[in-house]
Amino acid sequence: IASNLSAWKGKLYFAGDDNNNGQELWKSNGTANGTVLLKDLNGVVGASLPCNFHATPSVLYFMANTNSGWELWKTTGSNASTVQVIDLNPGSNDGLINSYKDAYMNNIGDTLFFKGRSSNGPFQLFMTDGTASGTVQLSSFANTLDDNSYFPVVNGKVLVLGFYDSQWWGWDSQ
Predict the structure, then answer these.
(1) Contacts with 14 (C-beta within 8 Å, 6 or more apart), sequence order
(2) Could you tell me the pTM of the whole model?
(3) Running DSSP on this structure, what letter comes out for residue 144?
(4) For all residues of the chain together, what is the average pLDDT?
(5) Is 26 helix (H, G, I), strand (E, B) or coil?
(6) How far apart are CA 114 and CA 92, in angstroms?
(7) Contacting residues for 49 by C-beta, under 8 A, at least 6 apart
(8) What backbone torsions phi and psi does residue 32 show, to the nearest 5 degrees?
(9) 77 dihedral zone (left: phi>0; alpha: psi -120 to 50; beta)
């Protein structure tokens, strides 16, 4: 069973379940022999449920649920390059989403903008260059970000709405 399909750099990436590992990260070149388990993110613990894939020019980002909770992961197409970017909300607390649902991200070049939280407080806007040290919280809204904010990019800025705000806020990758 395959779900959460995402095409990137001539390959198909998806959450697949081979009745052995649970839903894990797979990739395919469109042939049976070229369809492989890219990485079992959870090992023997259970399904990691990779979802919400978002491609930048050089990196494919996605969310997965491991013993670190729901966190941000990335790959460039190999097992070795498939790693968790950061444990935003340390321990088993969720840093990104708290269920298997759509979460919006956007990018400017290889800089990814996403909704996350570094504690159990409200969700904020973060950006990352794909490294833990390059992951930065940008906003500090008293309430969470609006769930329906798709982070549109306008004139080189990513726009967001706070849940109770009546104005857009904009950030760039600088």
Answers:
(1) 2, 3, 4, 5, 6, 25, 26, 27, 28, 50
(2) 0.91
(3) P
(4) 89
(5) strand
(6) 19
(7) 15, 23, 64, 65, 100
(8) -60, -45
(9) left
